[in-house]
């Protein structure tokens, strides 16, 4: 996959990303209160020879921007091939093989932000992807899903947009558990979100079947180890991919696979 920014666009900046305010309260974001800055990022997906265009609204808050973990996730999906033996590809292949006689792979994305990962997954895997986030984020995701419908459609995929505020039982019930694969990028960054995210993962992964959650992550705060300590009480967590350090940072994006504690992987 290659990523090309329009001339008017800022590149994703790993340093800026490190300036994320720990005290941002996303539920307090009021998008209509600030002037809107619009940027577009294009992702050329080599595997399907198509280009996805993503609208960012950086002045509206962190939910409306692209984050490096998302770029890594898209890159890995774009390199996916069922004959690949790496752990990321194996997790995708496992999900693909559970589809059996059903027509399409069903994927749920948590904290989709701009929707880029879910949209790319749908285009590349021909999957039915439900992209979710907090309610105020959904109009921009819907915009991006609509703009890219002509890329996703010919591959047999479909993108559905739904509210899923982590830990909100009625929204979790409405979205349901009927998915083959759960995905997310850059969703661990604020300690008051750890418990609601873990509750959501318990709802999604600890029912029937052997589903996994693939999560791309760029470590920002030392306190994130608290999330991994808590989550390991409930899940087996394996590292399935590691990028080298990004510019201006000592760390790079990693991808973890979360599964039930008794899951066995070859
Ligand atoms: C750092 S952004 C990452 C966005 C996108 N996944 C990416 O990598 O570009 C974190 C995302 O988690 C979402 N989020 C934060 N709190 C949430 C909650 N309680 N329930 C659902 N989504 C939440 C935000 O709205 C935002 O889109």
From TrEMBL:
Gene3D superfamilies: Vaccinia Virus protein VP39. Keywords: Methyltransferase, Transferase. The keyword Hydrolase does not apply. It holds the Pfam family Methyltransf_16. GO terms for biological process: methylation. InterPro entries: Methyltransf_16, SAM-dependent_MTases_sf. One of its GO terms (molecular function) is protein methyltransferase activity. It comes from the Eukaryota. This is Lysine methyltransferase, S-adenosyl-L-methionine-dependent methyltransferase. It comes from Helianthus annuus. The lineage of its organism: Eukaryota, Viridiplantae, Streptophyta, Embryophyta, Tracheophyta.
């Amino acid at each position: 996959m290659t990523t090309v920014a329009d001339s008017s666009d800022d590149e994703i900046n790993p340093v800026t990303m490190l300036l994320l305010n720990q005290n941002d309260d996303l539920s307090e974001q009021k998008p209509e209160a600030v002037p809107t800055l619009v940027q577009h990022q294009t992702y050329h997906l080599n595997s399907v020879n198509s280009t996805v265009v993503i609208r960012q609204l950086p002045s509206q808050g962190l939910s409306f921007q692209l984050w490096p973990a998302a770029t890594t996730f898209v890159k890995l999906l774009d390199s996916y091939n069922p004959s690949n033996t790496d752990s990321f590809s194996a997790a995708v292949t496992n999900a693909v093989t559970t589809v059996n006689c059903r027509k399409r792979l069903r994927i749920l994305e948590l904290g989709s932000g701009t929707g880029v990962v879910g949209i790319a997954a749908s285009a590349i895997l021909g999957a039915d992807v439900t992209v979710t986030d907090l309610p105020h984020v959904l109009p921009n995701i819907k915009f991006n899903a609509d703009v890219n419908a002509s890329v996703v459609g010919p591959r047999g995929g479909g993108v559905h947009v739904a509210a899923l505020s982590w830990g909100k039982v009625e929204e979790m019930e409405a979205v349901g558990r009927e998915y083959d694969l759960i995905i997310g990028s850059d969703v661990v960054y604020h300690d008051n979100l750890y418990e609601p995210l873990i509750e959501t993962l318990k709802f999604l992964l600890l029912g029937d079947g052997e589903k996994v959650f693939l999560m791309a992550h760029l470590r920002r705060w030392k306190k994130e180890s608290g999330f991994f300590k808590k989550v390991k009480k409930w899940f087996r967590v394996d590292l399935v991919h590691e990028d080298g350090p990004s510019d201006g940072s000592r760390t790079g994006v990693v991808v973890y696979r979360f599964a039930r504690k008794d899951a066995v992987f070859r």
